[in-house]
Amino acid sequence: MGLLTFSLNVTLDGCVDHQEGIADDETHAFFTRLMDEAGAMLWGRVTYEMMESYWPAVARGDVEAPPAVREWAVKLENKPKYVVSSTRTDFPWSHSHHIAGDLRSGLQKLKDATPAGVLLGSGKLATELDRLDLIDEYQFLVHPRIAGHGPTLYQSGLPHTRRLELVSAMPLRNGAVATHYRRARD
After folding, report:
1. Is the model's pTM score more than 0.85?
2. Long-range residue pairs from 129-134, CB within 8 A, at least 24 positions apart, any chain
């Protein structure tokens, strides 16, 4: 069974607005490594639609991008992508699959079928999956910024505190810190 790893950019005050992070070669390399190691990507509909509106065009060469970014887009194009949505059923982006029905059983089946693990990149969906005790690890890129606005991590709350064990923390030259935590099991 593969692990479900939640990964996101986050500011020091918990903001997960993707425009608030530092976008440079180091942060790009961090997320490229995570994607390369994972067997599949998992998003909610909103994140999927944001990604779908940009990255396929980069992969095709329709949008000008540095070689490393285009390479990432091509890798993403070929990576299995799973989407949780109750409002949309058609996902035409290559290698995209819909997860419908019972969230717990659907995600457990995905984890069981993906030994290399699943990389989750949607904040709202992470809250729901954490409520179901399905997230195994957390890899956040903590940016040295205070955004002063939302959306924020776990904005709608969790029923109880999650205890985590530090696996690693690595500062980047840009001041961000790549953190890796594992869920502490009692």
Report:
1. yes
2. 129/4, 129/6, 129/103, 130/6, 130/154, 130/158, 130/162, 131/158, 131/159, 132/103, 132/104, 132/107, 134/4, 134/104, 134/107, 134/108
